[in-house]
């Protein structure tokens, strides 16, 4: 089986001050798999997600990232998106003045164009958005607002899952999607994520807490500490961490 994502000996530092965050991280993710990455604050979980998406503030000093056999680090962020890499942020930003529907249509048609597909007409696009948004409890009022402006935490997360549902990425990276969600919003977001599980798609779910993994059940759980993955196991590993915490891993690191 060819891995969808292969990360080998990845070393990353903050470009501005040279602080090393990732210190030899290895990770292989196959299509169809859901991987959970857990770990204490400062272990490098969010940095990994930013590097996969192509955020400029980080410098890769060693190692490689292969995505579908190609060098991901050679791709610009928009190329990564066109190739099916999607990052759902822990804190989605507000974009005043940009209508949410315009944003969605522009993103979807840009991706279709990059794949050599024709643009959707406005009626086709509207039908698709209505279908996907209904499943995520997204109201027509939300769709009429600027991107994330005035959205609650749960609405912001639902808007990102709607983007995923429309764009159909091959690799979904969810950076602490459960942050700030109440139980009802967590359930709705998790159902949206679960609806996207497929043999062609892989997901990396970054979280502190077991509660998200009660809803999005992972195939593989990794523990991250001090910039590398220090333990890998099945879903039962998340339950163990819930009971014992990360003290053993931070001490070892």
UniProtKB/TrEMBL annotation:
Claim: Endoplasmic reticulum is one of the keywords in the record: no
InterPro entries from the UniProt entry: AAA+_ATPase, ABC_transporter-like_ATP-bd, FeS-cluster_ATPase_SufC, P-loop_NTPase
Alphabetical list of Pfam families matching this protein: ABC_tran
Keyword Nucleotide-binding set for record: yes
Molecular function (Gene Ontology), one example: ATP binding
Highest taxon, organism lineage: Bacteria
Gene3D superfamilies: P-loop containing nucleotide triphosphate hydrolases
Alphabetical list of SMART domains matching this protein: AAA
Keyword terms: ATP-binding, Nucleotide-binding
Domain ABC transporter span(s) in chain numbering: 5-251
Family from the record: Belongs to the ABC transporter superfamily. Ycf16 family.
Protein name: Fe-S cluster assembly ATP-binding protein
Native source organism of the sequence: Tepidamorphus gemmatus
């Amino acid at each position: 089986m060819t891995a969808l994502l292969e990360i080998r000996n990845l070393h990353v530092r903050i470009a501005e001050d040279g602080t090393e965050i990732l210190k030899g991280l290895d990770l292989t993710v196959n299509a169809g798999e859901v991987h959970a990455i857990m770990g204490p604050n400062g272990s490098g979980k969010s940095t990994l997600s930013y590097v996969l998406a192509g955020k400029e503030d980080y410098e890769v000093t060693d190692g490689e990232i292969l995505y579908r056999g190609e060098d991901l680090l050679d791709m610009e962020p928009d190329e990564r998106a066109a190739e099916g890499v999607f990052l759902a942020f822990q804190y989605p930003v507000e974009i005043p003045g940009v209508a949410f529907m315009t944003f969605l249509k522009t993103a979807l048609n840009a991706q279709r164009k990059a794949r050599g597909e024709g643009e959707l007409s406005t009626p086709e696009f509207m039908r698709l958005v209505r279908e996907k948004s209904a499943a995520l409890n997204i109201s027509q009022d939300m769709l009429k607002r600027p991107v994330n402006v005035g959205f609650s935490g749960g609405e912001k997360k639902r808007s990102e899952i709607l983007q995923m549902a429309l764009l159909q990425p091959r690799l979904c990276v969810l950076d602490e999607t459960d942050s700030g969600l109440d139980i009802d919003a967590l359930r709705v977001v998790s159902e949206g994520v679960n609806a996207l599980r497929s043999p062609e798609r892989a997901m990396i779910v970054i979280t502190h807490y077991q509660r998200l993994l009660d809803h999005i059940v992972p195939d593989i759980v990794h523990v991250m500490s001090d910039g590398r993955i220090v333990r890998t196991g099945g879903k039962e590993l998340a339950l163990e961490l819930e009971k014992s915490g990360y003290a053993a891993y931070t001490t070892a690191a």
